[in-house]
Design a protein that fits this description.
This protein is mainly α and 191 residues long. The chain contains nine helices and no strands. Helices cover 70% and strands 0% of the residues. Helix 7 crosses helix 8.
């Protein structure tokens, strides 16, 4: 069996720790200790902890194939949106309503501290909103989603409301906020 790549070990350790603790609550020493590599090897592979954080945020946003359902034209648009948010909610519940969404967590923690990470988050939100907008627009064309608001505005609202829902779920450690989000989103706003 080949020896794991040091860069990958550091990256995987940082992904785990940033997901569990957040950016400021883990140091380069914590990351390299988790990776089982000398602290000095960190800077052979990454310019800074901030650069690693920006890379991790991008990786986190792109690793899940879940968003692909939003652009699957073989599924009615409203059903795509419902399946997507149900899957997100289930993922959070499976983790015991802890840790939340790294994108939301890093947005709250790092947007005022790191322009590099903030810019990466801007790109992620634009892409994420774009996929939601695609599904909403498809639903509006199908006639299953109202057209009083633009697809862009509805998509932005859904993303913002869901991220707020995740924060509430983390605090309360139950899925009541998810239930409320689903009811309002799918029985009032998108109906």
């Amino acid at each position: 069996m080949p020896k794991p790549n040091t860069r990958d070990q550091i990256f995987d350790a940082a992904l785990k720790l940033l997901s569990e603790r957040g950016f400021n609550a883990c140091s380069v020493q914590d990351i390299t200790a988790e990776a089982g590599v000398p602290k000095g090897s960190f800077y052979n592979h990454f310019d800074s902890k901030e650069a690693l954080g920006a890379e991790i945020v991008g990786h986190y946003a792109n690793r899940s194939k879940l968003r692909e359902i939003l652009t699957d034209d073989d599924i009615p648009a409203l059903e795509r949106l419902r399946r997507y948010f149900v899957a997100l909610n289930e993922r959070m519940i499976d983790r015991g309503c802890r840790h939340g969404c790294m994108i939301g967590n890093m947005s709250a923690e790092m947007s005022d501290q790191s322009d590099l990470i903030r810019q990466q988050l801007v790109k992620i939100y634009e892409s994420w909103s774009g996929k939601l907008e695609y599904a909403v627009a498809a639903g509006q064309q199908e006639g299953s989603i109202p057209t009083q608001m633009s697809a862009k505005a509805l998509a932005g609202f859904l993303l913002n409301a869901w991220e707020g829902t995740v924060l509430r779920v983390r605090v309360e450690r139950n899925h009541n906020a998810f239930d409320q989000f689903m009811e309002l989103a799918f029985e009032k706003i998108l109906k």
